[in-house]
Each structure stands twice: as C-alpha cells, then as structure tokens.
C-alpha cells in the first residue's frame, strides 16, 4: 500500500505537491469515492480517477529540454500560450516540468513523469546545483558579488549563499555577464538576488542542472536522458546508494 499522492506522482499525474492539491480540492476518486485526506493509502487493485479520468501507470520517462524564451514552463496554459510540453509533443507519456523557468528565461529544463525524483530534485535539502548565466545592467562591484556569496534577504525572503562570478563585462555598454550557481529554486530567485544588489537582469539562461548540460542541443530541442544519467540523478537525490 502506498500513499495516494505518491501514487499519483509516480504515475505521472502531477508532482507530489500538485497531487496533494488535487486531493484536497476533491478532484480525486478512489473506487468511486471522493478522497480528500492526504494520508489515504491505496493498493494495486484500487481504481483511481482524477477529474473523471482513470489513472494508469506509465513507463518512467525523462526528457532534457533546451527551453527557448517565450514559452511557459507548465503542462498547459489557460491563455493558450505555447508550453514546454508542446515542445515535446512526440513523447507519448504524460510528462511535466521539474520546477520552472520564467517565460523570458531560456535554458535547461527537465520533464518527467517520475514524481518521486521530481520532488527530490526541486527540494533544497538535496542541494542539486543549478547554473545560470545572466546579462545584467551595470558592472558588479566586488561588494555586490560578496553579498551574493554570503546569501541575502529580499522582501523578507532569505536566499542561501550563491556561488557567483563575473565572466565578462562591456565598459561601453555598461553591462556584464555573470555566472550564478544556486541549489534552491525559489520564484524568480536569480533575478531578485541580482536586482537586490543593484544589477537588474536583462537576459537569463540556465546552463546546467547538476551535471547535465545543454551540449548538442539548440533552443527548442530535447533529448531523452541516458539510463546512466537517470541513475546519477537518483544518486544525487538519495534514491540510489
């Protein structure tokens, strides 16, 4: 027997947290009965339905996408805008993004139907590093970079120390290229941190997620993760020893 939200996540319905919201909002039925209690356990012979659609187990699928700017990091969008799932329409399994990249941010995004792995990858406890490269207005001072490395608080939100360095700068245009490495994934985190130290972001790209890179991909392209890459992600998050 497994907890209902864990089964929903494992079967690719949504992430663990999103599955909990589905349950609490009364959108999940088990054997014809609406279930709203998160502690509910189900077995292999129980019939589970979400919004009237029966949940079936799917083959675990792991996709690495080079997200372009102007695409929504969600499975569907009420406004009809293009989503990251639209870019991997040839994948037969129902997958969803692990975390998010802003609409105007490009770079590496993982999509999967493995809810347990997705939950751990987005949890700061496991400290999976994410590397961003930003073009900012102004040329950062040593003091500003030191603040990023020490961790800062913005509007009551505390951000953990970030590894950061200036890669290059353009004195004429008064802009700089900065690398920022974080292990959290808070909303608009890199943008807020850089703006807080006085250097607003003009352009942002996620270059790396853990050991994974965008090598060999152009914007809008995707590839399946190799079995050894999936195993390494599971090792990083404690799912494999």
Overview of this structure, please?
The structure is a single chain. The chain is of the alpha+beta class and 241 residues long. It folds into three domains: 2-54, Structural Genomics Hypothetical 15.5 Kd Protein In mrcA-pckA Intergenic Region, Chain A (Roll); 65-124 and 218-236, Pseudouridine synthase I, catalytic domain, N-terminal subdomain (Alpha-Beta Plaits), CATH 3.30.70.580; 129-209, Alpha-Beta Plaits (2-Layer Sandwich). It contains six helices and 17 strands. Strands 7, 8, 9, 10, 13, 14, 15, 16 and 17 form a nine-stranded mixed sheet that branches. The chain is elongated, with a radius of gyration of 20 Å. The mean pLDDT is 93.
What's the story with the biggest beta sheet?
Answer: 9 strands, mixed
Mean of the pLDDT scores? 93
Specify the structural class: alpha+beta
What is the tally of beta strands?
Answer: 17
The CATH architecture name of the largest domain reads 2-Layer Sandwich
What is the CATH topology classification name of the largest domain? Alpha-Beta Plaits
Q: What amount of the residues lies in strands?
A: 25-35%
Given this structure, which CATH class of the largest domain is correct?
Alpha Beta
**What distance separates the N and C termini?**
24 Å
The H/E string reads EHHEEEEEEEEHEHEEEEHEEEH
Query: Given the C-alpha coordinates, what overall shape results?
Result: elongated
Which value, in Å, is the CA radius of gyration?
20 Å
Total of helices: 6
Helical residue percent band: 10-25%
Oligomer: single chain
Fourth CATH level, the homologous superfamily of the largest domain: Alpha-L RNA-binding motif
> How many structural units, i.e. domains?
3
Low-confidence stretches: none
Protein name: Pseudouridine synthase
GO molecular function, one term: rRNA pseudouridine synthase activity
Enzyme class: isomerase
Domain RNA-binding S4: 2-64
């Amino acid at each position: 027997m497994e907890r209902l939200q864990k089964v929903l996540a494992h079967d690719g319905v949504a992430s663990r947290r999103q599955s909990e919201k589905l349950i609490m909002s009364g959108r999940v039925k088990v054997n014809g009965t609406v279930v709203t209690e998160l502690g509910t356990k189900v077995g292999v012979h129980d019939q589970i339905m979400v919004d009237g659609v029966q949940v079936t187990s799917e083959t675990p699928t792991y996709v690495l996408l080079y997200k372009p700017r102007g695409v929504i990091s969600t499975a569907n969008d009420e406004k009809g805008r293009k989503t990251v799932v639209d870019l991997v329409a040839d994948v037969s399994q129902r997958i969803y993004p692990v975390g998010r990249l802003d609409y105007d941010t490009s770079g590496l995004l993982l999509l999967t139907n493995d809810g347990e792995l997705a939950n751990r990858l987005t949890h700061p406890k496991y400290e999976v590093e994410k590397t961003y490269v930003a073009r900012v207005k102004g040329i950062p001072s040593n003091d500003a970079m030191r603040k990023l490395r020490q961790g800062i608080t913005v509007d009551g939100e505390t951000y953990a120390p970030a590894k950061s360095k200036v890669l290059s700068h353009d004195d004429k245009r008064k802009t700089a290229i900065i690398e920022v490495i974080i292990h959290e994934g808070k909303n608009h985190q890199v943008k807020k941190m850089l703006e807080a130290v006085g250097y607003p972001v003009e352009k942002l790209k996620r270059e790396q997620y853990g050991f994974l890179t965008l090598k060999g991909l152009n914007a809008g392209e995707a590839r399946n993760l190799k079995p050894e890459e999936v195993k390494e992600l599971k090792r990083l998050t404690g799912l494999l020893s």
